Amino acid sequence: MLPRTLALLALAAFHGAAARDSLENDSEPAKSGALDKPWKAAPDVADLDLATAGGGAEWTSWFNIDHPGGDGDYESLEAIRFYYRGRVCQRPVAIQARTTEWELPEEVGEIVHFSPKKGFRCVNKEQPQGKTCSNYHIRFLCPLEHIYWSHWSSWSPCSRSACGRSGTQTRRRRCVSAHLAAALKELKCKGKAVERRECSAGPCPEAAWAEWGAWGPCSRSCGRAAKRLRRRSCKNAKTSPCVGRAAEVQKCPPSPCPACPEHTLQGTVVSATGAALPGARVFLEGRPPALLARSDARGRFRVAGLCPGAAANVSAHLEKFAPALAPVVSNGSGLSVVRLVLQRLEKPYMVTHPEAKVRLAGQRATFCCKASGTPVPTKYYWYHNGTLLDRKVYKYGSRLALRGLTPAQAGTYHCKASTEAGAIQSAPARLTVLAPGQQSCKSKPEPNLIKLPSECRRDAVGSQYYDVGRCPPTRCAGSPADEAQCGEGARRCCGVRRMEAREIQCSGYLLPIKVVAKCGCGPCTQPRILVRGRVTAADTGEPLRFGQIFLGKKKIGFTGYKGSFTIEVPPDTQRLVARFVDRQQRFVDAVKVLPFNSRGGAVYQDIKMMRKKEPVDLDASQTNTIPLGEVRGQEPVGELVIPAGTFLRSSGEVFKGTVKASVTFLDPRDIATAGAASSDLSFANAEGEIVPLRTYGMFAVDFREGESNEALQTGPVEVRMDAGQIRMPEHLQKMKLWSLNPETGLWEEEGVFRQAKEKRGKREDRTFLIGNMEIRERRLFNLDVPENRRCFVKVRAYSNEKFNPHEQLEGVVISLINLEPQPGYPTNPRAWGRFDSIVTGPNGACLPAFCDGERPDAYSAYLTATLGGEELEAVASSPVLNPNAVGVSRPYLNKLGYRRLDHDDPDFKKTAFQINVAKPDPNNIDETNGPIYPYRSLKECEEAPASANHFRFYRVEVDKYEYNVVPFKESDLTSWTGDYLSWWPNPQEFRACFIKVQIEGPQEYMVRSRNVGGSHPLTRGQLYGLRDTRSVRDLLLESSSGACVEFKCSGMLFDQSLVDRTLVSIIPQGSCRRTAVNSLLREYLLRHPPVAENNNTAAFTMLAPVDPLGHNYGIYTVTDQNPRLAKEIAIGRCFDGTSDGFSREMKSGVGTAVTFTCQERPVTQESFFQRLLTAPAEALDEIRREMGANEQRRAPPEVTDFSSGWRAPAQRSPGGRRRMREQL
Fold this sequence. Notes:
The chain is mainly beta. A hairpin with a 2-residue loop joins strand 26 and strand 27 (387-388). The longest helix has 18 residues, at 1176-1193. It is globular, with a radius of gyration of 36 Å.
């Protein structure tokens, strides 16, 4: 009955949504009382043809973003989409509203307005006398499978472009679906996908000359005689040639320089932001160009005697800016005015990278790349396996076309773009060329071991692992239609084509399991790639509320009230650069290069922002010195010296008043500041490679007028660095001054330093490094050294401390901070130099780090690992250092000096370790197998086997076990398989459900959830999976512990056609009896039949709720694009006993669904949990017998026999029937 009702609702909404309460022309009263503010029209989508659309629809979660204060309760769809991105489909077809007491509006007698296109509103002044609006929450009905025709494409060009001949034109449309699961099926729409019509270019006209073009400029501006040229083109030259010349040359009369004493040229030179640019050289274009003037402090210049005309063009040139050109045009008054706008030179930055491709021998492949910058790059170079390809042979530009492919052409291809400002290289793209008969996807699955339940042993040796097989998500060969395209069209990947159901003999029962039987090519699974996190102040943890988020120049959204954010990574992104801006200007803009998991899902990041230094008053007419250094008890790293008369308005006028100056210095001598540093401390070298920097400090400047608060610029200022703060002598000659490009996240060189000695006292001579710069558009600077001594560190993350290679974790963010040790104290870091973050893949991660081959302790590094905000644990280094556990063999381990953070003090955290980054000696066999690799051995590091040396992190999960009948690796979303018994039915959105169980007893107990199909006809009685969790002791309640137990959420299965209410059994280990059930949960289950019987007091059974209930019911539900992150958030809320909090300390008496009392029992007595493990069939028969006996004594509201599907009749009250309709 449920699916049919949903379908009827959907049809009603499509055909008559306005019949209920249309808001198309209605107005939305704002909170301020503006009653006539119109709703914005919802974006249109392709028309849905109900005759071809797939049936069925699904309700979203309940939303409640407003409270009925002020004018009423407003739950607008636009606001819901802002706070819950991606949770509501583009075109909802129905809406439902209830009060928070689960009552309908008509039941409480309130007047409301609602529409699936706009949302819901209840206005207080529209209510009956004495009533105000209740607090409502709403949900939307979304079609499950929109199968419909797209709009027709434009008509293609005529197949015969030559005149006098007829041809054909075509246009196409696609049968598309908005639901991912449909991508695994063949979509069928009624009608034709292609239309054709005749076309013709018409009769051929006769050839004729076009009009002459304008005369070009004279070859000389003045002086000796010159020439000029004009051209014309021949129209329709294909039929016959035109008679006559295509070009004419004319002499220009000689003119003296200057020849117009009464004419004056006035001009200004400004930047793209309108700021005056002094010192620009102004030329009269010619051969050679003649220098006319230089711009003054306000960017102005004046030239007398220059004649206007077509041959008179002036250009402006200034260091670090691209030249600009403008004509000299007279207005008849003897005065010409020009404005030359100079764009700051910006190094090129790659915006489109070549894509990896798989081709059959004989096919062709096209690679494309594109770079931006100022000026825009036009020179491109292509490389194959690092070797430059001959431009004359391949005739390439930004596109490289390879025809007639052979296996010898396989390998990596990358491009390089170059301008006068610099160069940039693209990421490499791999080309795989398959020989005749070679398959890109083998039908035989690869081995994939999963762990079985503890009561299941696979073989005579007692192995708990079973090979379920896997299909590697490799690309399949592209279609011929994609050969000339830059990107692949419908991408095809190796995936599961057939699965087999098997049974494993366990202690007293058979465990169902599905294994991969055959692999083949099919549509690629395309999970969403997200970066989520929270932005807070580095000093106080204050959240950045409603801060702006930019990707490049585009604003993509805001942070939430608690500083949370979600960024969807654009397709084919190689480097994600995000900028976070505080609109209240309390924090320095944070530019972050965010790691993400290219295989899909969400990666969590904590973003720290530097608080701006409180401004101080400076007298602009005097020289001012601002110290650069924030560590108490230590001398500043340097100082910023601003000479008198240096502050400028944007017009170039010298500012002479009081300046509010804020200079915020990030001091690397304080290791706690590493997380607040902007960018990833990288720059593009002359070859276009992105290489690392080592910082000695970075500073942000903000200068404003004291009265108007207008931003000020400066002319030349000095940055002085104390050479005594540079502990590595070789860095003195390499030190440079850099500024950050906020759009690319790369640092660009501003200037170099020179050494100078100065007296600071009678006997003190100090050496300073002095650099010069101007503060214009950019406001974040860095004191950095390009470092050539670079290596890679191999790190892997594991699901537990057994470190099995097949239990590695993907999607873990590994962070490495380079440290500079104090002389004589190698283990006592003095300062950090740079940091990097990498996301682990199927073979771990390789992190760049500074290293030294002569002094092992010259550089040290500090490593941490997080997964969804949870810190992973490092291997212990005391009391005994175990090389087998660390993952690195001796004697190299001794040289690396591995120490976990709690090595000397057990009160320190166990989630980080420190090493000396000693560059491996190629002549020492003990150092050639990792975990440190030379910088040029990145490929060797990335492809290193699990048996090679590496450092390890692991997840601390005590007595926790998960089993899925359909195997799925949560860290690899591409391993998802569409099956009715899949634990997660949708690979783009994962809904995690937990129930909180309180255990009253003297110890901690294992609690199992057994999850089987409950109401779906194809899964009823079949196992989805098992979850075992050990309860956690409550530190505040004596003899009490709590367990947050995962269960399979109710909802649509993978085909999105019917809802299944999962039958969940919660069984604690030991001699336990159920003593209490949450009253709200019990009432909810009674009001949403069918109801599962609970006669066995040693367990709790329910048909899982479809709605996300919350902590008041003891049920915790979180939806996210990353399953692990969804589970971590839900567990944190469950531990805390709230719907929006987070805790790792169990509060067993808060937000509990069910309570068991357990006690110690004689060894001879077997618990129900143990009976379920040893003989589940008998245990379940016992439950059925008790249920049958109880059924004779008392008729339940509605009881379902899950083995047969028989439903007993039961009487309902009118209110119950009303609630049943409401639920449907």
